[in-house]
Design brief:
Layout (H helix, E strand, L loop, with lengths): L8 E5 L2 E8 L6 E5 L10 H7 L4 E5 L16 H14 L6 E6 L1 H12 L4 E7 L13 H6 L8 H17 L10 H11 L4 H12 E2 L3 E2 L1 H14 L3 E6 L8 H9 L4 E5 L6 H4 L1 H24 L1
Parallel strand pairs: 3-4, 3-5, 5-6, 6-9, 9-10
Antiparallel strand pairs: 1-2, 2-4, 7-8
Helix pairs in contact: 1-11, 2-3, 3-8
Length: 300
């Protein structure tokens, strides 16, 4: 199954073609955009286009999601972080990047900053995993997908899976009507890819348990390492987030006391998709500060 055409390219990582979309002047400060579990780089498309006037902006489908095949390694935060660095290397981008990560992508971004801190100039954590136990990811579409191919009963499960997918996608937004038919069709294509369900569940098990939520051990270790790395951090959240409740925004500012933050009152789990203009305006101020800090370090 091919990906929708939005001017994407593929770079090879460990023999796997990773789907990438690059925008903006190659000489401009680099940004890397990472999506959440089960999602794709389309979640960043509007914000990427807005940021491309002043930044070299790279968005990627994480291995096993979007239209990128899984890597041979077990999916976890470290394997995703390694893949992101491999993509930067394949694109010939050696400079420190500011990484913008949404949901799972935020935890991957923090992992990048702690495994090779010299390559990360800053972090923009958008409704990011890692700041609380609670998560409300709807697993019904993934569970029902296993029965869609059954003889006789398959069509019935297909209808149920389609309805569950629509409900789960609409929960992403504060205003469910923002979820368009085109977005739903894209999400269905992504979820229908071979191996998607297995990879989704394996990724989920690496960071969370049913009912119990996110594992506290990796969260503690990761946040301790982020504090030690002293990477500039900007935390962004939607007050009406139904996936990772907004109380985790306040946890983030408490756990990362040097971080800056911004809360969007009328956004849900993806403010970069719901309010791309206000989102990018807010993020630009932080990016300018990161650039000024980097310039000061180079001159000293």
């Amino acid at each position: 199954m091919t990906a929708p055409e939005i001017d994407t390219v593929r770079v090879t990582v460990d023999g796997v073609g990773v789907r990438v979309r690059v925008r903006g002047p190659v000489t401009a400060p680099p940004l890397l955009l990472l999506h959440g579990i089960g999602r794709s780089l389309e979640d960043w498309q509007a914000a990427q286009d807005l940021l491309a006037d002043r930044f070299h902006v790279i968005a990627m489908d994480l291995p096993g999601f979007g239209f990128t095949e899984p890597l041979p390694t077990r999916p976890d935060l470290r394997s995703f972080a390694r893949a992101a660095y491999d993509v930067l290397d394949a694109l010939g981008e050696p400079r420190p990047v500011t990484v913008l990560g949404n949901s799972l992508g935020g935890a991957v971004a923090m992992t990048m900053a702690t495994t090779t801190p010299s390559r990360v100039a800053g972090l923009v954590l958008v409704c990011s995993a890692g700041f609380g136990r609670e998560q409300r990811v709807d697993l019904r579409p993934t569970a029902l997908a296993a029965f869609v191919t059954l003889p006789v009963l398959g069509p019935r499960f297909r209808r149920w899976a389609r309805a569950a997918t629509e409900t789960a996608n609409r929960r992403i937004f504060a205003d469910p009507n923002l979820m368009t038919e085109q977005m739903l069709a894209h999400s269905s294509k992504v979820a229908a890819r071979p191996g998607y369900r297995r990879h989704f569940l394996a990724t989920g098990r690496s960071i969370a348990l049913p009912v119990l939520g996110f594992h506290p051990r990796w969260r503690r270790r990761l946040l301790d390492a982020v504090r030690a790395a002293e990477t500039p951090v900007f935390v962004v959240w939607g007050l009406r987030d139904r996936i990772l409740p907004a109380k985790q925004y306040w946890n983030a500012l408490r756990l990362l006391p040097n971080a800056r933050g911004h809360l969007f009152p009328e956004s849900g789990h993806m403010p970069q998709l719901e309010q791309p203009g206000p989102f990018t305006d807010t993020v630009r101020d932080f990016l300018d500060r990161v650039g000024a800090t980097a310039a000061s370090r180079r001159s000293s």
